[in-house]
Amino acid sequence: MIPGAYDAQTDPSPFWEETLMAWKKPRVTEICLALEINCYASAGL
Length: 45
Known about the structure:
By secondary structure, this protein is mostly helical.
């Protein structure tokens, strides 16, 4: 899902740096949409 995630096993530094950078400027719309979908999925169960 995250570009560079495959580097986590060999060299975790790029992975964590990208993750931190992504959370510094989160895409609010995508996060809200993901949470909404998660709520519907949980309610469906």
